[in-house]
Amino acid sequence: MKNAQIEELLKNTIKSKKVVNGYMFSGSGKTKNYDYAKKFAKMILCLSPEDEECKKCKSCLMFDDDNHSDYFEINKESSESIKIDEIRGMQERIAEKPITSSKKVYLINNAEQMTQEAQNCLLKTLEEPPDFITILLVANNENTILPTIKSRCTKIVFTEENVEELSEEEKERYKSLEKIFGNINKYKSIDLLNKLDVLYKDKDNILENLDFINMILINKVKENIKYAKYIDYVEETKTRLKSNSNYDMCIDNLILKIWE
């Protein structure tokens, strides 16, 4: 996804108060996955989440000074291993309730450098985390990370393309898609067809739109496991479109499957 799309989604996640316990910011090369993970951590901890530009609350000031009581980071060079003792050190603080903010955030940069023992240790926390905890994993090569860890994290994938800010038209489109797919079970088939007219008209950006839809659905999986099936439908649609299948029929089929 484009960086601007990701930023918009993260802001909306904060606004909707649907922050989950685990995220993986995945990317490679010159992507800014660490920068965005840290920015997201600051937003989670902010005492005025309704203010997108807040830089003045106690939490934001502490965060900018690298002195936040509810933020913990493991940040090692990509050539160094992250060992089990470091994860255990993090876990010792996890049970303690937040002091300044309503949540606590733990960020692990270069998460692919965790040893197998460290990953297995972290998995125990991801399986039963306290409600006030959010763990952010930043990975440049997620292939070395246990599937059981990845399955417990909402995945946010960065690309290397240099992207400008979203236009107002694009922002409106993404807000519309988030509103629809964030409440997908409230709509009947005919309502979906009418509301998702944007998918039929916006052929040039359909793959980006479908990626964005799956980001929304990933955030919903922990509410109801059936959203995982919706994600599969979206991925199937992307595959069909890439093989030059009939465009309108692909979108029709996606909407029908979700409605059923």
What does this protein look like?
With 260 residues, the chain is α/β, with parallel strands linked by helices. The protein has two domains: 3-157, 3-Layer(aba) Sandwich (Rossmann fold), CATH 3.40.50.300; 168-259. The chain is 50% helix and 10% strand. It has helices spanning 3-15, 33-45, 58-64, 84-94, 116-127, 147-150, 168-181, 189-195, 197-201, 206-220, 227-242, 247-259, and strands spanning 22-26, 71-74, 104-108, 133-139, 154-157. α4 (84-94) links the parallel β2 (71-74) and β3. The longest helix is centred in the last third of the chain and has 16 residues, at 227-242.
Q: Spans with pLDDT under 50 lasting ≥5 residues? A: none
How many β-strand stretches? 5
Shape: globular
Mean pLDDT: 83
Q: From the helix content, strand content and strand pairing, which structural class follows?
A: alpha/beta
How helical, in percent, are the residues? 40-55%
Distance between the termini: 28 Å
CATH class of the largest domain: Alpha Beta
Integer count of domains: 2
The CATH level-2 architecture of the largest domain is identified as 3-Layer(aba) Sandwich
Tell me the radius of gyration: 19 Å
In CATH terms, the superfamily of the largest domain is P-loop containing nucleotide triphosphate hydrolases
**Sheet with the most strands: spatial strand order:** 2-3-4-1-5
Supply the number of helical segments: 12
In oligomeric terms, what are we looking at? single chain
